[in-house]
Structures are given as structure tokens and as C-alpha cells.
Write a structure and sequence with these properties.
Elements: E1 2-3, E2 10-11, H1 16-29, E3 36-39, H2 45-48, E4 57-61, E5 91-94, H3 97-107, E6 113-115, E7 134-138, H4 147-160, E8 165-169, H5 175-190, E9 197-201, H6 206-211, E10 215-218, H7 227-234, E11 239-242, H8 248-251, E12 258-261, H9 266-278, H10 280-297, H11 300-316, H12 337-346, H13 351-355, H14 361-367, H15 373-389, H16 395-401, H17 403-408, H18 412-420, H19 433-439, H20 441-446, H21 450-458
Parallel strand pairs: 3-4, 4-5, 5-6, 7-8, 7-10, 8-9, 10-11, 11-12
Antiparallel strand pairs: 1-2
Helix pairs in contact: 4-9, 7-10, 14-15, 15-21
Length: about 475
């Protein structure tokens, strides 16, 4: 209920969305000129997309990666408001061109999807010398930041460069972050890196710590556009980053102002770290190139004009009807279901594959053979059937524990085999896949999912599935 003390009018709204729409509409009507509403978060997007076109220009911006594992086009989509009603907006802004293309493929081309990157304020270069052994990470301590990958890579560095030092800066205050912090500390202890890896916590003088580092590392599982990437580069420090979605490959020129590393390729990351530790002058040269790039493309002076240009486009452009989304399959328009299936497969694991093809386990497994080869594919098919027959994956537990699996519509067993284990999910309350993999070296060499191996071999061999 809204009680207006000036007019004595009382209005009733059925839900918060209707109330928010009324509030924003009244706010916009009070403006002398038609205003621009920019939604910077996912929650209010459905509200602003319902504001009348005569009242305001509506713009939403996507800051994060909308996919769950494997965090790329074709993976399950998170249920976030910012993806609802794209067609109703005057503009939908992504942070990278690659993400823009994925959104168009996923939801259709409405002629209103644009790319404008994040930016940093322009700053004078700090007069700070680099510390010859210092490598840094700037990140909150959370599961998706995958700091374990960086620490494991640094173990390889320390084996060859005893004085190397990794400093991790960032908060760990929320329950999930504290849990992750405990895991990180245990890993540091297990790898005997107490004299080389240091958890520094939250700091305020980020620029100083970045500037004196030889390089900074990014090992996240996914990102939208990590600010630490361009912040580090602005401080004349090159970045070594996993080639993840989204942004590192859009910003970094390989070997010029940073290095891109294949995801979870700790050996390659270690090699690049050692290369810069051994050649401080090269790190400085790459840092100079990195700062120049940010000044030219990713500061407020470079990016704000892009927003101004977008405002002009939005104010003059008429919305065009939506083109059909590429992930929609309309059977009536397809001459051959088999041909349509092949077309979908050629688009590299679209959402249709996740939801529909996973209903045919053997076909899904064959499609996803990748580098493991046909022999492992046949073993995986047999393992899938054994897991299902013996109820080794507790479907109720799995779906209740991980709601995104239910949302994806994917077969839970296949989800665990191809995504869940990599995301540290458990197939049932007692099976510890990480433990099983670490204890039995033959499982590691087999390239099989640990639950598949256990279902086919481990049960008969009475292998342990968790610490006693």
C-alpha cells in the first residue's frame, strides 16, 4: 500500500514489481527530458523492462558469466533476472564481444545488444621498483576463484625457484569464504609452501602491492570481466591468466602484455611465472605495454564516450523484431529431425544438447569423447549403466544439494560425470571423489570419472571411498 501524504491518495499493488514500476514511472515523469534507466544488477531488470517506452529508455548490463559449468555457451544457464525480457529493453550491454555473440546465439538477435567494457580511473604511474621474487593474487577467497590452481602451479615454481613468493590479497569473511580459506591453508601446509605462499587478507593500498609485483595471477573458473585484470595492467604489471570466460583473451595480447594459459594447465602457468621471475626486465617491458593498452582502451576517458554514443543510438533507433533464437528447436520447421540434430551438434554443445541429448546417455557420452577416445567412451557408457543400476548417484540428494542441476534439465548422472565432479559436487552423501582420485594413482591415469571407476572396478576391489 502506498499512502501519498500530499494528495491523500492511496494505491494498492499486487506485488513488488508493480510497486517498483510505479515508483520508477513517477520518477521518470518528473524529469524534464526522457531519462535513461540503467540497471546495473540482475534483480531489478524485469521491472525496468516493463517501463513504458514513452516514459524512459531502458538499459541493462550483464556483469557476470550467466553459465554454470562448463561456463561457456552450451552450458546450463543460471536463473538470473537480467536475462529475462532482453527483447523489451532499448539496450542490453555485455562487457566483451565474445559474450555479446554468445548472448545473441543463446537468446536471439534483437538488434539491441552492445559491448562496452569495464573501465578504471586514469592514474599516474607509481614510482615503485618491482620486488624480484614477488607474485601476487588479488581475489576474494571463494570457490569460483580457484586459488587451489594457483597454489598447485606455484608448487612447481618453488621446486625450481626456492625464493619465489606468492602473496594472496583479498577478503575471507562470509561463511563460504572462510570454508574456502581453510581449504587453501590446508593445501599450503600439505604442499609445504608455508615459506613461499602467504595469505595477506584485505588491504586498501592495492596499487602499491600490484606495482611492486612481477606479475599477478588469475585462475578463476569463470568471470564476467575481472577488474583486477585491468587494474594490474594499469599498474604496469602483466597478468598471467587462465583463458576463461570472459575477458582475458579480449584484453591480453599473448607474450606482449601478459600470458594466457589453458584452463587448469598448472605446468604452463608455472613456466610463465618462472620466465618472468628469471627476466625482470621482460616483466617490466610487458608491464609498460599493459599500462599503455589500458590507458588507450580501458580508462574512464576511453569508455565513457562509448556510453554517450550508446545513448545517442538508443534515442534515435527503433527496435527491430526479434530474430529466432538459435537454441530454439521448432520441429514443424525442420524437414529432417536427424539433420536438425546434426546441425545442433555442430554448434558445439548448445543448451538443447544439455537438455535433450542428455536424455540419450550413450549418444551424449559418444559426443563428448574429446581427447579421451572411443575406448573410454565405451567404458563410460558401461559405467553410466552400472551407476544407474546400483543407485550409486543419489538423485534426490544431488538435485536438492545443487539446484542448478535441476534447472539445467540435464540427466544428473551425466551431469556429475561431465561437470559435477569438476565443480566439487558429491554424487551421494558418502562418496568423496577427490579422495578416491588422490589415493589411487591408477584412477588418475585412467582419465575416468572416479564414480565411473568405482562402479566398474572399485566396488569389487573393495576400495575406500572416503577417509575413515
Amino acid at each position: 500500500m502506498l499512502f501519498d501524504r500530499t494528495s491523500n491518495e492511496v494505491l494498492s499493488f499486487n506485488n513488488s514489481t508493480a510497486f517498483h514500476r510505479h515508483f520508477l514511472t513517477e520518477l521518470c515523469k518528473a524529469c524534464e527530458e526522457k531519462p535513461y534507466l540503467i540497471c546495473d544488477g540482475s534483480g531489478p531488470t524485469p521491472t525496468i523492462s516493463n517501463i513504458g517506452q514513452d516514459v524512459a529508455y531502458t538499459i541493462s548490463q550483464l556483469h557476470s558469466n550467466p553459465y554454470t559449468g562448463p561456463y561457456c555457451f552450451g552450458g546450463p544457464i543460471r536463473n538470473i533476472g537480467i536475462l529475462n525480457g532482453i527483447e523489451k529493453l532499448d539496450a542490453f550491454v555485455t562487457l566483451t564481444e565474445k559474450q555479446r555473440k554468445d548472448i545473441v546465439k543463446q537468446f536471439g538477435d534483437y538488434g539491441n545488444i552492445y559491448t562496452i567494457p569495464n573501465f578504471v580511473p586514469q592514474k599516474e604511474k607509481l614510482n615503485i621498483e618491482k620486488k624480484p621474487n614477488k607474485i601476487s593474487i588479488f581475489s576474494r577467497i571463494s570457490h569460483e576463484k580457484n586459488l587451489e590452481g594457483a597454489i598447485k602451479a606455484f608448487k612447481l615454481v618453488v621446486e625450481r625457484r626456492k625464493n619465489a613468493r606468492l602473496e594472496i590479497f583479498g577478503r575471507a569473511t562470509l561463511p563460504g569464504e572462510l570454508k574456502e580459506l581453510k581449504k587453501i591453508k590446508e593445501l599450503i601446509s600439505k604442499l609445504k609452501l608455508e615459506n613461499n605462499v602467504f595469505i595477506k587478507g584485505h588491504i586498501t593500498d592495492v596499487d602499491k602491492e600490484m606495482a611492486e609485483s612481477i606479475t599477478t595471477l588469475i585462475t578463476s573458473k569463470f568471470e564476467g570481466f575481472p577488474m583486477v585484470l585491468i587494474e594490474s595492467m594499469l599498474n604496469s604489471t602483466p597478468v598471467i591468466s587462465y583463458d576463461l570466460n570472459y575477458s582475458p583473451s579480449d584484453v591480453i595480447d599473448q607474450g606482449v602484455d601478459g600470458f594466457l594459459v589453458g584452463y587448469n594447465n598448472i605446468e604452463q602457468m608455472a613456466e610463465y611465472i618462472i620466465e618472468l621471475l628469471d627476466n625482470t626486465e621482460k616483466a617490466k617491458e610487458m608491464g609498460i605495454a599493459a599500462r599503455k593498452k589500458v590507458l588507450n582502451h580501458y580508462t574512464d576517458e576511453a569508455v565513457i564516450p562509448e556510453w554517450e554514443k550508446l545513448f545517442e543510438i538508443v534515442a534515435t533507433k527503433k527496435r527491430k523484431p526479434a530474430a529466432a533464437g538459435k537454441t530454439e528447436v521448432k520441429t514443424a520447421q525442420v524437414e529432417s529431425k536427424a539433420q536438425k540434430l546434426l546441425d545442433v551438434l555442430n554448434e558445439n554443445k548448445t543448451k538443447i544438447i544439455q537438455k535433450i541429448i542428455s536424455k540419450f546417455p550413450s549418444l551424449y557420452i559418444l559426443i563428448n569423447t574429446n581427447e579421451t577416445g572411443i575406448k573410454n567412451a565405451l567404458i563410460n557408457i558401461k559405467g553410466y549403466k552400472t551407476i544407474k543400476k546400483n543407485h550409486l548417484l543419489d538423485i534426490s540428494f544431488y538435485l536438492e544439494s545443487y539446484p542448478n542441476v535441476r534447472f539445467s534439465g540435464m540427466d544428473p548422472i551425466l551431469h556429475y560425470m561431465y561437470h559435477g565432479f569438476k565443480e566439487d559436487k558429491k554424487p551421494n552423501p558418502v562418496f568423496d571423489g577427490d579422495y578416491y582420485l588422490k589415493v589411487y594413482s591408477d584412477v588418475q591415469r585412467s582419465n575416468l570419472n572416479p564414480l565411473v571407476h568405482y562402479s566398474l572396478y572399485g566396488i569389487n576391489e573393495k576400495r575406500k571411498i572416503r577417509k575413515s
